[in-house]
């Protein structure tokens, strides 16, 4: 049975991704910063008959927490087949380029970029032991430099000087990571779940949590012919699945 770790999986898209992977027969380690919320999420999944799930406390902002989570997971399994870096924050509004504080930028980058780096580096040894290791970094088409520089794009006026830069930086890390692992069996991609109405964005959105979870889960379990080093946004680019950087 293949095993998958998902960060920030106690609610919303992360939780739905966990649910769908469990329904498909995978074993899921549900990562959550909050012990209480994480255990409640586990209970809910088990109440649905999805029992191949275990809780891992992990705060991606804290190196000590990440290292403790790696030790804890290592007690449960010697192999990890997929890592989904889902934990993220939007940083609050407003996010104007001239009024954004360095503290605001630091807090968001600490989760959305540094958190991805911390977790990936901590767990990559377990991923190396998998025959088909996969890494999915949850991104957003809203961080596309190409789209945001196009005045005809429908979200052109929705600029963010904090969240979008953090995810754009994460995308660049994804490219570098995929390149570094290009001679292995790894598949590493940045995946946009779509514009989904959750508490993350004030419950504004056009897509469903179920659709978002399916998009992320798909790239956590892609086969040998699947892409790597790509930016995927199937909601906006259904023909090729790729989003411009």
UniProtKB/TrEMBL annotation:
<dbReference type="InterPro" id="IPR045313">
    <property type="entry name" value="CBR1-like"/>
</dbReference>
<comment type="similarity">
    <text>Belongs to the short-chain dehydrogenases/reductases (SDR) family.</text>
</comment>
<keyword id="KW-0521">NADP</keyword>
<dbReference type="InterPro" id="IPR002347">
    <property type="entry name" value="SDR_fam"/>
</dbReference>
<dbReference type="Pfam" id="PF00106">
    <property type="entry name" value="adh_short"/>
</dbReference>
<dbReference type="GO" id="GO:0016020">
    <property type="term" value="C:membrane"/>
</dbReference>
<dbReference type="GO" id="GO:0016616">
    <property type="term" value="F:oxidoreductase activity, acting on the CH-OH group of donors, NAD or NADP as acceptor"/>
</dbReference>
<keyword id="KW-0560">Oxidoreductase</keyword>
<protein>
    <submittedName>
        <fullName>Short-chain dehydrogenase</fullName>
    </submittedName>
</protein>
<dbReference type="InterPro" id="IPR036291">
    <property type="entry name" value="NAD(P)-bd_dom_sf"/>
</dbReference>
């Amino acid at each position: 049975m293949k095993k998958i770790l998902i960060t920030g999986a106690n609610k919303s898209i992360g939780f739905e991704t966990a649910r769908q992977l469990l329904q498909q027969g995978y074993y899921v380690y549900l990562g959550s910063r909050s012990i209480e919320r994480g255990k409640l999420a586990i209970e809910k999944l088990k109440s649905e008959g999805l029992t191949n799930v275990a809780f891992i406390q992990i705060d991606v902002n804290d190196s000590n927490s990440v290292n403790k989570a790696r030790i804890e997971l290592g007690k449960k399994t010697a192999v990890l087949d997929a890592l989904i870096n889902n934990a993220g924050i939007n940083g609050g509004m407003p996010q104007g380029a001239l009024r954004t504080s360095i503290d605001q930028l630091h807090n968001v980058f600490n989760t959305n970029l540094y958190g991805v780096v911390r977790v990936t580096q901590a767990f990559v040894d377990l991923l190396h032991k998998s025959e088909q290791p996969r890494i999915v970094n949850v991104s957003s088409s809203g961080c596309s430099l190409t789209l945001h520089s196009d005045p005809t794009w429908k979200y052109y006026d929705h600029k963010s000087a904090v969240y979008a830069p953090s995810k754009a930086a994460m995308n660049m890390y994804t490219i570098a990571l995929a390149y570094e692992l290009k001679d292995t069996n790894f598949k590493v991609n940045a995946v946009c779940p779509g514009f989904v109405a959750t508490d993350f964005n004030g419950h504004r959105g056009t897509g469903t949590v179920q659709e978002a979870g399916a998009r992320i889960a798909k790239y956590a379990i892609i086969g040998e012919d699947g892409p790597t080093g790509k930016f995927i946004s199937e909601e906006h680019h259904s023909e090729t699945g790729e989003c411009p950087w």
